[in-house]
C-alpha cells in the first residue's frame, strides 16, 4: 500500500507542483483562506480533487506548502554561505525584490487570522513553515558561532527568528508601508546584528 501511494505521489513533476502552488497563492490573494476550496483549486489548475487530496491531504497542508515556496528561505538557507552572518542575512534579504515582499506581506496579513482560528492550518504552518525556518536559522547562526562571530551564550540567539519576522510584519502596521530590501537591510544592521553582538562596520 505504501509503495502504491509513493508511486502515485511522485507523478506530479516539480514544474506542475510549482504551477499548483502559484494557483493556490492567486486564490488566496483573491478570496482569502476561508473561501479557498479544493474544488476551486482543482478547477483553477485543471486537476482532479482526488489528486490534490492524495498529494497534499487537505487544504491546510497545500496552503502551507504553497506559502513556504514563496519564502526567501524556501529553497534552503544552506545555499547561502557568504562567510559572515551579515553577508548571509543580506543575501537572504536580496532573494526577494520589493514587489515580491509587498505581495508576501499582504498574503501573510490575510492569513494571520485564519492561522490562529484554524487548528489544522496552524499545525500545517508549524510543520511546513515555522519549524523548518527556525531550524534553518539555527544552522545559519551556528555557522556564525563556529566562525567566532557570535557568542554561543548570547541570549538574543533564541529570539533571532522573532526579530526577523517582527521587522517584516511591523513595517506595514507601524509605518503603513510595505517591507522593502532597503528597510530590511537597515533593520538587520541596526537591530538584529547588534543584538547578536556582530559589528556592522
Give a quick set of tags describing it.
201 residues, mainly alpha, 10 helices
Number of strands: 0
Given helix and strand content, the structural type is mainly alpha
Query: How far is it from the N-terminal to the C-terminal residue, by CA?
Result: 58 Å
Strand content: under 5%
What's the Cα radius of gyration? 19 Å
Query: What's the story with the biggest beta sheet?
Result: none
Shape: elongated
Give me the number of helical elements.
Answer: 10
Q: What helical percentage do the residues reach?
A: over 70%
Output mean pLDDT. 86
**Unreliable parts:** 1-10
Secondary-structure element order, N to C: HHHHHHHHHH
List the helices and strands and how they pair.
Elements: H1 2-9, H2 14-31, H3 38-45, H4 49-56, H5 59-70, H6 85-93, H7 98-117, H8 119-147, H9 160-175, H10 181-195
Helix pairs in contact: 2-3, 2-5, 5-8, 6-10, 7-8, 9-10
Verbal overview:
The chain has helices at 2-9, 14-31, 38-45, 49-56, 59-70, 85-93, 98-117, 119-147, 160-175, 181-195. With 201 residues, it is an all-alpha fold. It is elongated, with a radius of gyration of 19 Å. The termini are far apart.
